[in-house]
Fold this sequence. Notes:
Elements: E1 9-12, E2 25-31, E3 45-49, E4 56-58, E5 66-68, E6 76-78, H1 82-85, H2 88-95
Amino acid sequence: MTAFHVGQRVRIKWSVTWPFLAGKEGLITGVSDPRDWTPGFRCDWLVTPDGFDSPRLPNSAAPSGFSNFGPLSEQLEPLTNSNELVSWESMRDLWAPEHLRVAA
Length: 104
C-alpha cells in the first residue's frame, strides 16, 4: 500500500464524478473529513487538480453546484520526484572515502 501525504504530487487514475480528471496530475491539499462526505461515499484525501484553485470542483449533482474532489487512495498514484527523495547533502558520505567525510 502506498503512503500518501499532504503536499504530495499525484496522478489521478480515475474518477466517477469527474471522468475528465483521469490521467491528470494534482496536489494533495488535505485529509478528508468524514463529516464532509456525501452520504454513501467515502474519500481519503482532498486533491486540487492542476488547473484548479482548490479541491472544490463544479458538480451539477451537488446542491451548491460545487463539491470537493476527495478521491480514495486507490484512485491515486504517487508522482515521484528524485529531488524530493534524495539530496546531495544526504548522499555526500556514501561516495566519499572515510578520510574525506565531513564530521556531523
